[in-house]
Amino acid sequence: MLASQVESREFLFQLFDVLDTGALAARERYQAHSDSSLRAVVETFGRLSAGRSGAGDERAEALAGDSVGVVPEVILTLGNALYETAGQQSRLFRTRSEDLIAAPMAASVSAWQDYRTLLTTLDMADLDAPESADLRGRLLVAKSRSEAALAMGLYGASLAEDVQSHPEADQRANSERLLAFLEPLLAWWPRHAAWLTSVSLGRARDASQIPDPDESGRLAREFLGQRVWQHQSHGLQLFLQSLQKDLEAATTQDTQQWALSLSETLQRAVKVTQGLGQGLQGGAGDRVLANASRYLHLFGEMLAGWMWLQQANAAARLLAEAGPGEESFCLGKLQAARYFFHWTLPEVAQDLVLLQNQDTTCLDMRAGWF
């Protein structure tokens, strides 16, 4: 499959097979659209950002005119990231969620394109050789991180879209509250994932790519110290309820096992959260917040696990009727999900232990001891 075809398939999969963006055509704001015209806009953004053109571009560009009022925010978010990553005019379109999502989304697209570019330089026969298992492992790190980061940014943009255009007022309110709860995670995890992708590919070019540790610490303390408890933890409850739908949607032996792993991690995280809440109420704020970065990491990985469960569920559905090229795409998605659930999610066990014990190793360290 050509590089441009892979890029197009990835974005169409994320938007239409996972997020069901085509259903937005039923909303009044997008009544001029259909599923196919929305797909055409996505493909056009991809061509134009790469300096290519094709039949139908004029129609897609016209539909994108005046941006927010015509094309869904989730598609505009991807279009902005593609243009910014390509080094062209940054952010062609104004979106209501760009202050939150634009920079992490551009970092995610850039990391994913670096991963895809490296693949084009490798000999596939050599890559399949037994002695290349370690290289395949590093590429799985890049794939599992960068594609989860893409999914995370697009999911955040889809929530922003629901805040604006969902026909039901209750759903608009719930989407706004869930987005507010996830904001620190959406700001931190994709950029962290982009950095890990660069490291795994040997392409970490300079220190400026590393997420700012001070900013990460601020987000961590804000998440654990405020967002989790706002509105009587309604945002956290919405997170759990929304995730539960995808846990129940797992139908294959593999996806059901991954759903079980994620569910068990969630249950432990909820129990730990209850203990941390008691600590905050009991006046042990310094002790609790000393490990806030581990809490941010824990929830970031669970959110990434959710993104991979969504993708695995979609890939499993498509696999039954997939042709040769599509079959490889779906099997790649399922293998990356397997990697995440077998290799990455279990690592949060350390976070859970440190948080449950409210470990004070870092808090107890003194300046003079360094």
TrEMBL record:
Transmembrane segments: none annotated. Residues 241-365 form the Acetyl-CoA dehydrogenase-like C-terminal domain. It comes from the Bacteria. PANTHER family: ACYL-COA DEHYDROGENASE, ACYL-COA DEHYDROGENASE-RELATED. This is Acetyl-CoA dehydrogenase-like C-terminal domain-containing protein.
